[in-house]
Amino acid sequence: MNIKPEALTDSNKAMSSYLSPLVREIPSSGIRKFFDLVGGNKDIITLGVGEPDFTTPWHMREACVYSLERGFTSYTSNAGTPELREAISEYLDEQFAVRYDPKSEIIVTVGGSEAIDLALRALIVPGDEILVPEPCYISYSPITSIGGGIPVGIETFAKDEFKLTAEALEAKITPKSKVLILCYPSNPTGATMTYEDWLPIAKVVEKHDLIVISDEIYAELNYGEKHVSFAAVPGMMDRTILVSGFSKAFAMTGWRIGYTCGHPDLIAAMLKIHQYTVMCAPSMGQVAALEGLRNGLGEKDRMVEAYNQRRRLMVEGFREIGLECHEPRGAFYVFPSIQSTGLSSDEFAQRLLAEAKVAAVPGNVFGLGGEGYLRCSYATSVSQLTEALDRIGQFVEKVKKEG
Amino acid sequence: MTELNDLKLKVLELLKEDARRTPTLLATLLGVAEQDVCTAIKELEDQHVIVKYAAVVNWDKVDDEKVTALIEVQITPERGRGFEGIAERIYLYPQVKSVYLMSGAYDLLVEVEGRNLREVANFVSEKLSPIDSVLSTKTNFTLKKYKQDGIIFEDHQEDNRLMISP
Fold first, then answer.
1. Do B164 and A316 touch (CB under 8 A)?
2. CB-based contact (8 Å) between B3 and chain A?
3. Residue B91 belongs to a domain with what CATH number?
């Protein structure tokens, strides 16, 4: 078939006109653009990955394999297997002192991402404002927009260790404000919130009758005080939709097993959307996740210890290079400032990639407050991190000499 | 038995992963002073907890033929010394790479390395078997080594992660 290029272009234009304006107007992700620049080049040391470098522990993979051999390949109940929900309930109670009824307050989802989507779709009435502290995970604002909501960024700053403050939150609240999305420990800053940090936020949430979606996917990767779930703050349980999953702490990113917990009325609404869109999370992944909760906590702790060691290496490394770097107390990212080099985040990241063969993500893609920073993941080996720091150090020296 | 503090245990774990790590790097990874790491290492060496720093080699990759055998040895223990004296007589041979006292069907497991089958066979027949206390030997030649000291030799797991991800 001989299709002229012009004809193809015309055809594409015509097809795009069918798209929902909500989707068409969403800008493509800055991470995506950078991903294209990096390509598949294997000579690059990458600090750009937002996932563990550990493989899912073998006993969890093996549990999945055995379940397949036994023919466990059917749908599970919409909310997930009762055993897994029961195990999640006990785990959250033991680890974070939040107790959810496995029968009515927990849904096993296709990763934490689906849980956030479910929560927003269940809550948003078009025109609602959704408050998002930034810099933050790149999906919150686009998912809000797709749901007809209006994302409202709240800038956070290195001087506050990228914590959300009650004043900053209050300043952005309008009569249309409905939902606050929290993500602590934070991707990309590694910021965490203590119980004392949460109390004034909770007051504002209550005063303005907000619902909170608390994305706690990095809860286990915490290197300071133990993670405090926002749902554990007095009075916040009923107005919090907790989102978490197995991707980060159990090195299960590809399995897509997450979960969400909350008030039975909210969970019931989210379950409606979940059952009409995905039916249930993958059954085999649920088996592996259950094995992780039953027998994998030791391995989880060993991985956290390894991340903590690398975190120290990165913070000290960046400070030695002469870049300001606040100390992240969670997740597996450092977020050094590159402002002293005079380059923008995009310029720095692009030149670092081209001239030093190190891939990291420019901070501006994470929203307000991200410009002037670089997200570097330390979910890679100590030897790779050491080499990356060497290269970044030489690159920064070169840039500074250029003046 | 030496009781070790938390720092020493962590130093051991990190050096077991990679013995070339410097005290500076170990101190950074563990968030402690470099001097504390140096002291810990010195004490571990003095106490013979750290016995030696050696590379784990996959000899199958080297064009230098070696044959390894694991020999199950049954012995009669000596009065007063038990298995110690015989174990010593055996482990002092340079071709013996390791000796373990075992529970179960035999007493000692002896790892012997030679350039070829004949060399190992000669060792067994001329050195090991004639020892008075040795009742029997059963020689098992290793065909391939998959994992040693927690290290998988033929690890095909590549990093399949995307170079950049959210």
1. no
2. no
3. 3.30.70.920
Do A215 and A91 share a domain, yes or no? Answer: yes
Q: Give tens-digit pLDDT for A97-108.
A: 999 999 999 999
B65 & B133 share domain: yes
- The region of weakest confidence among A37-41, A298-302, A356-360, B106-110 is A37-41
Calculate how close chain B gets to A310, using CA atoms only, in Å.
6
Residues A285 and A302 in one domain: no
The domain in which residue A377 lies consists of 16-55+297-402
The answer to whether residues B132 and B78 belong to one domain is yes
- Dist CA A130 CA A317 (whole Å): 37
Question: B160: nearest CA in chain A?
Answer: A53
Indicate whether B162 pLDDT > 60.
yes
Closest residue in A to B25 (Cα) is A313
- A113 and A158 housed in the same domain: yes
pLDDT attached to residue A224? 87
pLDDT in tens, B120-145: 999 999 999 999 999 999 999 999 98
> What ipTM was assigned to the predicted interfaces of this complex?
0.86
Quick one: closest CA in A to B24, which residue?
A313
Tell me, what CATH number does B10's domain have?
1.10.10
Is the confidence at residue A387, as pLDDT, over 90? Answer: yes
Same domain, A49 and A80: no
- B-chain residues within 8 Å CB-CB of A310? 29
Q: From CA A15, how far away is CA A11, in angstroms rounded?
A: 6
Contact assignment for B30 to A41 by CB distance below 8 Å:
no
Out of B28, B29, B165, closest to residue A49 by CB? B165
